[in-house]
Write the structure tokens for this entry.
Amino acid sequence: MGGAGSDPTGVDPDLNVSGEVLPVEFYERDVVTVARELIGCVLRRETDGTVVAGRIVETEAYRHDEPASHAYTGKSARNAAMFGPAGHAYVYLIYGMYECFNVVCGPAGVGNAVLIRAVEPVEGIARMFENRFGSGGGPTDGATDVVQARSRTAGNIAGSARGHRPEELTSGPGKLCRAFGITREVDGMSLVDGPVTIHAGRAIAGGAPTREIVATRRIGISKATELEWRFVEAGNEYVSRRVR
DNA sequence: ATCTCGATAGTCT
DNA sequence: GACTATCGAGATC
């Protein structure tokens, strides 16, 4: 779909935020199950009355007892939120310049979390372009991206900045944090109380909650690579890497 | 389409 | 000092 809608806000009417906030009980379960079931749910961020939202289309489970997990070597200042209660955020800095947003799962004190790797923009798309590619400045963070705008004419949805395609907006864990203005300030915050919340998914056309969900190996890690704990909505254009 | 590489800063050995 | 749950540019096919 092109989404070249007539709606100037760029909201796709078929992909609205209409679900209830996911309760803490949703997160207090097996981390792999939660990772799978988060596909199709809606991540929402409110900043000064402005809403940015997207359908989750890619996740990864990180369980405390496998070596790719940040919790594997125990609690520290950085990963402390992982050992807090379920339904809270764990946000950390990676490679010195990007943040990654995770959801704490399972019993408190253990250290399970789901990395949100990609979302499909639903609401506040103009704001996402602004957060990612500038034209004003970020909402909360001073991380003004100075991305060399390659001049390319692309499909214009609302707010499309300088030839960047909407698929580049949130198709990766670092990208979506920039687009949503999620920084380490969000680390440890409740995902039930906000300002970042996750909502039950709304059925897509046809009634299904999501399209088919595919499990693959996780990306960007060097340990426990055999575990197929990455979940992707099949065929979605907004995933970080296509499923092969 | 697929690759290699550099940026950049916090965490851990 | 080494490593990192990334990204985007540029080269190459």
Summary: Confidence is low (pLDDT under 50) at residues 1-9, 136-159 of chain A. Residues 125-133 of chain A form the longest helix (9 residues). The longest strand of chain A covers residues 50-62.
